[in-house]
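User: Could you go from structure to sequence for me? I need the amino acid at each position, not a summary. Structure tokens:
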């Protein structure tokens, strides 16, 4: 049996919409837990730390915002912190010339952590590669998500050259949690889907419990496709959408498309049949990507 991943059309050649100024959509409830009580904050769809311009207004309660902020911190700071700074991405924390970055080095067989200035930091973009989402496949699924490979893009100075200059045996790539990264992908994908279709268009959302860490099923909804279809572009992120034949909504994301690295697909939830039929009629069966 072929996987359901083959049931959506390719994105090559589809029209592109480039976001060049801030766009905001009013929501009025927490998109994760549904509450309308308490203070609801602005939710960045494409992360602020990736120069994101799209936001949802009054869309996250303080409790859920605390959880999703930790996901972003892990990815944007711990995985990509030095690389993002090198590329000039914006940050909520104003940078000072004496800001330090952590690196892990090995010298004489002993591993240790050092705090260094940007010029001595390993500037690397790590992009884990997963299986396709279990919901699109016929394999047995028992929870979690497995990293089967990864793309690695080192900026400015290769690991060997940096190690030689720092007089160590090795400079290690940052350690990270693939499951946290997958939840971060789901968060971005879900935000894009809500901005595009509206929360009222969905009869059920699949990814919220996984994003919040309440269910250990992120690999059922998030994964890597078998092909890479977005073009190389100088944008922080490329995004595409597709409504599958059973009305499930699939969002496809490529982060740092300038490097032509891994892409990700997320099955966000199921759209109401009436809304799905209307979108198919409007788009004539095709959903256009945005960048």
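Assistant: Here is the amino acid at each position, in order:
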């Amino acid at each position: 049996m072929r996987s359901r991943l083959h049931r959506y059309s390719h994105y090559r050649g589809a029209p592109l919409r480039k976001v060049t100024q801030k766009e905001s959509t009013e929501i009025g409830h927490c998109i994760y837990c549904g509450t309308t009580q308490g203070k609801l904050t602005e939710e960045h769809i494409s992360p602020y730390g990736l120069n994101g311009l799209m936001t949802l207004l009054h869309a996250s309660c303080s409790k859920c915002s605390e959880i999703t902020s930790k996901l972003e911190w892990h990815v944007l700071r711990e995985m990509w912190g030095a690389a993002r700074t090198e590329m000039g991405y914006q940050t909520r924390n104003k940078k000072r010339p004496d800001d330090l970055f952590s690196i892990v080095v090995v010298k004489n067989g002993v591993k240790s952590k050092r705090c260094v200035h940007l010029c001595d930091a390993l500037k690397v973009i790590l992009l884990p590669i997963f299986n396709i989402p279990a919901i699109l496949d016929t394999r047995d699924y028992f929870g979690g998500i497995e990293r089967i490979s990864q793309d690695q893009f080192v900026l400015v100075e290769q690991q060997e050259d940096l190690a030689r200059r720092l007089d160590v045996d090795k400079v290690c790539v940052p350690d990270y949690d693939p499951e946290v990264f997958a939840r971060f992908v789901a968060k971005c994908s879900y935000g894009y889907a809500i901005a595009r279709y509206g929360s009222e268009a969905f009869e059920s959302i699949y990814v919220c419990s996984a994003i919040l860490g309440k269910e250990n099923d992120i690999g059922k909804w998030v994964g890597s496709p078998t092909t890479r279809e977005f073009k190389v572009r100088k944008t922080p992120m490329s995004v595409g959408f597709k409504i599958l034949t059973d009305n499930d909504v699939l969002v496809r994301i490529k982060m740092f498309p300038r490097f032509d690295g891994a892409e990700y697909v997320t099955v966000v939830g199921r759209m109401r049949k009436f809304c799905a039929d209307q979108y198919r009629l409007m788009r004539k069966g095709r959903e256009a990507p945005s960048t």
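One structural detail worth keeping in mind: The radius of gyration is 20 Å.
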